[in-house]
């Protein structure tokens, strides 16, 4: 999620895998998560925003709080902000505001600044929700022996503590053996450049067997770095004008199928 304006680009329609293909894909990844190879323990690399988590409720909460502030001075715009729901959000804040008919440039500027300061900070990460089946799937992979690496474009100084808390609250493995979390050292760094820099270093953790991301560019660069891994594109939202997704990267909507493949997985040892 970013605040800058977009030039309108037609939305790309991705061909998602069928139910059977999805079952086979997840089954294969679960099996790979159970096998240690000469390259070390199996490693599962997971993006957070738009991949394991839906962060749109974060923006909705922020816009609703802004509505309370604007209630007296800008009642029309405040009312409009209160109609914001996750489904009505665009990827870019400017487009969302336009959709909500907040058009006055000074108010757009004020809303953007208010949103930016809160969206990219610890406190409001508590509004994020897990994608369907995501907690079950990650717990299952971890329980089978995979090292789970959360690799996120969130930055460590402003979002590290909130990210840790959010993962814990939602039930993802965190704070136990076999889990790593990698955040940007600095918020100014571009997400793709950051992930491109980090990707080759993950070989020191073990054998990268699978990776999930909601950005085509990140999926493409992981497939280049780890051609034999299962790189999977999660079709939620992504940056407008993203590059074309490679043909050898399957597309899923969420992780719901993982729940049908294995019984419920208890929290990792050491977690409450
Ligand atoms: Mg993402």
Write the topology of this structure.
Layout lengths: L18 H14 L9 E5 L6 E2 L1 H15 L4 H8 L10 H7 L5 H15 L9 E2 L3 H10 L3 E9 H15 L8 E6 L6 H8 L8 E7 L2 H10 L4 E5 L16 E2 L5 H4 L11
The site of magnesium ion has 6 residues, from loops.
DSSP, total strands? 8
Beta-strand portion reads 5-15%
Q: What global shape is seen?
A: globular
Q: Alpha-carbon distance between the termini?
A: 32 Å
Order of helices and strands: HEEHHHHEHEHEHEHEEH
Structural class: alpha/beta
Q: Can you tell me the number of structural domains?
A: 2
Radius of gyration: 19 Å
Major β-sheet strand ordering: 5-4-1-6-7-8
Tell me about this structure.
The structure is a single chain. With 272 residues, the protein is of the alpha/beta class. Helices cover 39% and strands 14% of the residues. It has 2 domains: 169 residues, Rossmann fold (3-Layer(aba) Sandwich); 71 residues, no CATH class. The chain contains 10 helices and 8 strands. The strands form 2 sheets. Strands 5-4-1-6-7-8 form a 6-stranded parallel sheet, with helices on both faces. Helix 2 runs antiparallel to helix 3 and helix 2 crosses helix 5. The radius of gyration is 19 Å and the shape is globular. It starts with 18 loop residues before the first helix and ends in an 11-residue tail after the last helix. The model has no long low-confidence stretch (mean pLDDT 94).
């Amino acid at each position: 999620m970013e605040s800058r304006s977009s030039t309108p680009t037609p939305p790309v329609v991705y061909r998602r895998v069928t139910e059977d293909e999805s079952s086979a894909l997840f089954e294969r990844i679960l099996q790979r998560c159970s096998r240690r190879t000469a390259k070390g323990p199996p490693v599962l690399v997971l993006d957070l925003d738009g991949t394991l988590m839906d962060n749109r409720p974060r923006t909705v909460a922020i816009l609703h709080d802004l509505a309370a502030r604007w209630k007296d001075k800008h009642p029309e715009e405040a009312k409009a902000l209160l109609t914001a729901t996750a489904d009505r959000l665009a990827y870019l804040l400017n487009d969302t505001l336009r959709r909500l008919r907040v058009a006055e440039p000074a108010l757009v500027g004020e809303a953007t600044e208010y949103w930016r300061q809160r969206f990219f900070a610890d406190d409001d990460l508590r509004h994020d929700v897990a994608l369907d089946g995501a907690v079950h799937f990650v717990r299952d992979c971890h329980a089978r022996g995979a090292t789970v690496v959360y690799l996120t474009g969130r930055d460590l100084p402003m979002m590290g503590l909130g990210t840790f808390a959010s993962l814990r609250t939602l039930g993802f493995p965190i704070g136990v053996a076999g889990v790593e979390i990698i955040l940007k050292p600095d918020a100014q760094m571009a997400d793709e450049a950051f992930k491109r820099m980090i990707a080759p270093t993950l070989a020191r953790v073990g054998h990268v067997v699978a990776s999930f991301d909601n950005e085509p560019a990140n999926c493409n660069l992981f497939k280049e770095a780890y051609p034999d891994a299962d790189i999977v594109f999660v079709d939620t939202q992504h940056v407008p004008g993203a590059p074309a997704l490679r043909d050898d990267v399957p597309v899923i909507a969420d992780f719901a199928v993982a729940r049908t493949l294995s019984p419920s997985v208890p929290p990792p040892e050491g977690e409450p």
